[in-house]
Amino acid sequence: MNRASITAAIEQILGFLEDTGRYVLPEVELQEYLVRTRSLLEKAHTPGEVLYAGILGGTGVGKSTLVNALAKDKISDASDRRPYTDKAVVYRHHDTPRGLEKVSDLLREPDAVHHVDTIRDLVLLDLPDFDSVEEENRRTVLRLLPELDAVIWVVSPEKYADAVFYDMVRRTRMHRDSFTFVLNKTDDLLADGHPDRYGRLKEVQGDLIFRLRHEARVEQPRLFSISADKEFRGEKYDPMPADEFRSFHNYLMVRRDAKEIASVKTINLVEETRRLLADLNARIHPEEKARILKTIDRIESESGGREERNVEGYEHEKALQASLLRHLAAEDASIASVRWAMRFLSRGRSILVTGSGHLLEAVFQSVAEARKRPRSAFLEKTGALMDSELLLAFRQGNEKEDEPQAERLLDAAVREASKAFVQSLEARMRSLSGPMARWRRFGQKLVLFMPVPFLVLRLTGLGRIEAWFESPSLSGAFTMMLALISSLFSSEGLTGLLVLAICQIFLVYVLAGRRIRKLEKDAGILAESAVRHLDSRLDAVVAKVEDQRRRSIAHMQEGIRTLSALTSEFPTVDSPRDRRRDAPVS
Q: Helix (H, G, I), strand (E, B), or coil: what is residue 127?
C-alpha cells in the first residue's frame, strides 16, 4: 500500500465525517475526529519516501522519450541538459522534495518539475551520456549511482553492442538487483518489410543478454524490449513491445511501492489510519446501529400508511360555513325589507350578529387547530418512536438541529392558510358592496314594485285609463287620481291593499330566501376552499418533516455503510512492520 492509496483512504474517512458524521456522532466528538483526520491527511500529503531511479544510456538511445513515456506527458526535452552535459537532470513532482543533498553539485538547477500524479513518488534522474568523450561525464555517473534506488540502463538496437556500455555496467558498484535493462526502439526491428521481424528482435535480445552476462557480469539481467516513442505518442503498434512497456512500468511502480511500504513513516501512517478507523468503529458500533436503523425503517414504513385525517372535515367545513354565512349576511347590501326577512328566515342560525368578523376569526382558528391536532399527534407519535430508537443507538441529538420543528412549521402553515383565507374573504366582500350590489338592490325594488300597477289598474278602472289615453288632459288625470283615492277607502280598495301587502310580504321572503341560498353557496365554497387549502399546507408540513426524517435516516445508513466499507477495504500491512520492528517511530 503506497502513500497515494493511504492518502485516498484518509480522504474518504474525512469525506465520511464531513458528509454524514454529524448524523452518527455527537458534535463535540465529531469535531475531535475531524481535527484528528485532517491532521492525519496533512501528514499523508507530506511527501514520504520516494524511489530514485537513474536513467543511463548512450547518446541518442531515447532517454528523454522514455521519461515522457513513463509520465504519459511531455516532461522531458532533448535540450534539458544543455549546456549542463556533465550534470544530471532531475524530474520530480512539484510536491515531492528532491533530496540528494550529498550530490546536489552534480544536479542541474532548477529541477524539471511536473504535475503528473501517477509518478508523484518517483524521482527520475536523466544522467549524462556515459559514451561521451568527456571523462567528467563518467565520473558524474559513478558518483550519482550509489545514491539511487534503481538504475535503468537504456540501449538501442544500433548501440547495444558498444563496449563502453558493458564496461560502465561492470564498473558500477551497486547490487545487480537494482539494475533494469531497456532495449528501446524495438519498433525499428519490427518494421514492416522484414521477413522475420520477431527473429531479428530475438537475435538482438539474445546477443544483449549474452554480453551482459559475460562482459558486464550480470548473471540474471532483467530486460524489457520497448518502444518509448510509440508509447509516448499513444500510437497503436506491435503488441509485444506494448506489453513489455506495461510490464516495465508496473515493475517500476512495484519497486517504488515496495520501498515506500517498507518506510517507517508510511508504516506509522497506515497504523494511525487503522487506529482512527478502529476508534470510529468502537464509538459508532456500525453493526448495532445498522440493526436499529432497520427498526426505524420498519416504524417509518408502518407509519407511512397513516389514516386519513379528513373524517371530521365535513363538520369543520359546516362550522366555518355557518360563521361565514353570518359574516356575509351581516355585510350584505340588500334593501332593508329583504335584510329583515333574511333575519327572520334565519333566526335559528342567527346570521346577523354584531362583530361577526371577530367571531369568524375565532371560528377559523378553532377549525385550524382541529385540523392541525391529528397531524401534530401523528408526527409526535412517530417522532417519539423513532427518537427512542435513535437515542438508544446514537445517544445524541445532532440530527435534530437541522430537522424542522413540527409545531413551528404547522403553526406557520396555519398562518399562511389564514392569510389566504382572509384574502379570499376580502375579495368576496368587495363583490357584496360593489356595482353588482347596486344592481341587486335595483332588481329587488323592481320586483317589489311589480304588483302596484295591477292594484292601480284595478282601483282606477280600465275604462277611465283607456279614455285618458285616447284624450289625455290634466283634468282627466285629476279625475283618475280622485277615483283611485276614493277607491282605496272602499271595500274593494281595502281588499286590494291587503292583497298587495300579502304579495309584498311573499316577494320579500322569496327574495330573502334566494339571497340566503346564494350566501350559503358562497359561504360553502369559501369554507371548502379554506379547509382544503389548510389541509394542503398542513399535509405539506407533515410530508416535509417525514422527508427530513427519512433523509436523516438515509444519511445515517449511508454513513454506517461508508464506515463499514472503509474498514473492510483498508488492508493490513503487518509484514513490513515486522520487518522494521526495531525502526524508530517518527
A: coil
Establish if 197 belongs to a structural domain.
yes
Give the Cα separation of 166 and 179 in Å (integer).
13
CA 154 to each of CA 62, 151, 184, 545: distance values in angstroms, whole numbers, following the listed order = 8, 10, 7, 68
Same domain, 323 and 200: no
| Structure-block grid coordinates of residue 526 | 369559501
Mean pLDDT, 10 residues at a time, the chain of 586 residues: 78 86 81 91 76 88 89 71 68 86 87 85 86 73 85 91 87 80 89 73 91 90 92 86 90 78 72 86 75 64 49 70 77 75 64 52 81 82 63 48 68 86 81 77 85 82 79 82 80 84 87 83 85 87 81 75 78 42 35
Query: Per residue in 48-60, is it b (16+ CB within 10 Å) or e — as a string?
Result: bbbbbbbbbbbee
Q: Are residues 42 and 53 in the same domain?
A: no
- Minimal CA–CA distance to 46: which of 112, 96, 12? 96
Enter the DSSP assignment of 101.
G
Total domain count, the chain: 3
From the CA atom positions of the chain, what is the Rg in Å? 50
Exposed, middle or buried by CB within 10 Å (0-12, 13-18, 19+), for 90?
A: buried
The span from the CA of 174 to the CA of 169, in Å, is 9
For 419-450, the DSSP string reads HHHHHHHHHHHHHHSSHHHHHHHHHHHHHHHT
| 171-178 contact pairs (CB < 8 A, 24+) | 171/142, 172/142, 172/145, 173/145, 173/146, 174/145, 174/146, 174/148, 176/218, 176/219, 176/220, 178/148, 178/149, 178/150, 178/151
Q: Looking at the structure, tell me whether residues 360 and 459 fall in a common domain.
A: yes
Which cell numbers in the block locate residue 351? Answer: 346570521
- Tell me how far CA of residue 167 lies from CA of 130, 136, 153, 171, 172, in angstroms: 10, 16, 13, 6, 9
What is the C-alpha to C-alpha distance for residues 530 and 508, in angstroms, rounded to an integer?
Answer: 32
Domain that holds residue 521: 290-560
Q: Are 277 and 129 contained in the same domain?
A: no
> 229, 65 in Cβ contact below 8 A?
yes
Q: How large is the angle between the packed helices 356-394 and 406-432, nearest 10 degrees? A: 160
Do 179 and 89 reside in the same domain of the chain?
A: yes
What lies within 8 Å, CB to CB, of 16 at 6+ separation is 559, 562, 563, 566
The amino acid at residue 100 is L
CA distance 203 to 536: 86
C-alpha cell at 441: 338592490
What global pTM score does this model have?
A: 0.47
Side chain identity at 324, as an amino acid letter?
L
Angle at 257 between CA 252 and CA 263, to 5 degrees: 135
Within-domain flag for 216: yes
